[in-house]
From TrEMBL:
Residues 10-659 form the Glycosyl hydrolase family 13 catalytic domain. InterPro entries: GH, GH13_cat_dom, Maltooligo_trehalose_synth_4, Trehalose_TreY. Gene3D superfamilies: Glycosidases, Maltooligosyl trehalose synthase, domain 2, Maltooligosyl trehalose synthase, domain 3, Maltooligosyl trehalose synthase, domain 4. This is (1->4)-alpha-D-glucan 1-alpha-D-glucosylmutase. SMART domains: Aamy. It comes from the Bacteria. One of its GO terms (biological process) is alpha-glucan catabolic process. It comes from Paractinoplanes atraurantiacus.
Amino acid sequence: MTPSGTYRVQVRPDFPLSATADLADYLADLGVSHLYTAPLLTSTPGSEHGYDVVDHSKVNPAIGGWDGLRALSQALKNAGLNLVVDIVPNHAGVAVPHANPTWWDVLRRGQESEFSDFYDIDWSRGRLLIPVLADDPDALDQLKIEDGELRYYDKRFPIAEGTGEGTAREVHERQHYELVNWTRGDSELNYRRFFAIVDLAGLRVEDPRVFDATHAEILRWHREGIVDGIRVDHPDGLRDPGAYLDRLHEAAPGAWLVIEKILEPGEEMPDWPVAGTTGYDSLAEVGGVFVDPSTEAFFDTLDRHLTGSERSWQDLVHEAKLTVATTLLAAELARMARLVPEIEAAPRALAELAACFPVYRSYLPYGSRHLAKARSEAGRRRPQLIPVLDQLTARLRNPADELAVRFQQFTGAVMAKGVEDTAFYRYTRFTARNEVGNDPAKFGVTPDEFHEANDERHRKWPDAMTTLSTHDTKRSEDVRARLAVLAEVPGDWTEVVRRWVRVAPLSDPALAHLIWQAAVGAWPLERERLQAYALKAAREAATGTTWQHPDEAFETALREMVDKMYDDPALHRELTDFAASITPPGWSNSLGQKLVQLTMPGVPDVYQGTELWDYSLVDPDNRRPVDFAQRRELLARIDDGWLPPVDDTGAAKLLVTSRTMRLRRQRPELFTSYRPAFADGRVGEHALAFDRGGVVAVATRLPVGLSRHGGWGDTTLSLDGHSWLEVFTNTSYGGNKLQVSELLRTYPVALLVKET
């Protein structure tokens, strides 16, 4: 069953399955058809996200176990809802070895373990390296033997049978694993990781035995009717994503399958047996169409003034990806290089190819053109490597070559760490566009481009997920909507931010610009939240400080800069006033992009809490508790006939969300086609509208510019002569032409249903 709409809940120990079950009636009232949860299998003790599964055979007892899942399923069914669950096939959690029975057995028995081939380990390198020791040459002196185990402070490790005699160091030397300095993880690790996270070890689900062992429980949920749909986390890390998805599709017939595949702008997905992606492509299009593309030059000039740099986005990305490939992912690079020992320059050339790779990865033979493009660009940047590049690409084109297989897994990690987790924090001219799945160099999206993309989505992937916020977005949809207003007031923004960086200086001006944008985008917010965001952003950017080697002086200066926003009365007042000035047009953008996302082709997802205004920043900020009692109360008032104003309660967004989601669930026949609708008049370009086959969505674009023109004036929307009911205000309209000023009198959005 394809959902009409989903609602994402981050099930976790402090919001377990029982609390989630209590939401069933609210979600049904909201209008969704499916609850969409974070991973539910047993994860690392204390995990707040669930993506570090340690036991694939059971529901996480920390969130309620099997009884909790069964109760949730019953509550959903009683409310007429179904369940979509997130699964993690690429990696498992190994931070707490004794919590993961298969990993514990591998540590205890090495290659003789029945699970030694569950994990992607290079056993040719000798013992399995575990990077947990302090950066101290005498760290091993802290090892102890307790209860038949090796202990390093609070970490526990098994002792192989017959090897427990002698000192702790002597016992350690006899194990199938070697505890090493934590700094050696990036360069010497001999097991594949999720990106650069040593606590997440890569699984070999290409092996049918591993697939069966890690999916049996989830597939049982599907067979028993508990789960309707499956969201697949990070398929790009797998050895052969296409073969994996074929197997999953076969094992779960009829399941709605969506995958966390991040497509670069213009990239097409292979023809896999899935409904589509989880929606980052739609996020980029929806966010972009509410940005004024005509002011790009203002932001280029401001960026050059603030940073003194004219480096392009492309060059910045190349630099970040090359650094990631040769440092954070050096162990994976070295593993590939060992497959071509005859080529001395292989590490440099492979890193260069990965840095030039234009998308996350290829799926040979599909996507071989991306390799050709990377080879061309790498040759342009490093002409001295051309002979080596040609040698390597000859092998990298062959899907059966182990080098080609591992290179495809490598490029995705390089892209994610180099772009999402580094370049997005360095390229800060206009951060409303610094989002997963988007190219920040593309300042905005024109209405024609938006309609073209949606026509293609309707034809090719009509059941894919669409989204505006996820647990992985860099800032929430409402922060981006408010920041989009800056593109309409570039002069005002230039004036205040140039003054602010003088009042509260920072030695990294690009990072400072990022933080000022975060501040106005989410203001007012607690000091602690902005401090935490600033620190994470600085360490991700890795220009003034890093996660591996924090710079105390820089981080102190950063804290002082943020503190000044709160402690300097004049600065605090000006920041508050400026944020207030862009908040109302930001509300208009928020309602517009929400309506568009909920009505465009695809299955709309609502991230927890975002049915009201939600000014969250990057995780863990976007995983904060949600006040569902407030949302229930406001929805009840709306259902009693209250038409909420567009104000700081956010209830207008709840109105738009609930009425639209209910319509999609109750009358799916109205959403079976896609046709742009155009407004006539002097300011017609400020209306974004489309007809889904019986329902027409209308949203306001660029509200500041519209206000400067004096409003809608004589602008009209041409329809087909039927009478129409506007869903949000329950107002009827008739005739061939509707006055937009009348239609959008109450709200900056409208949803028209053809009356029969």
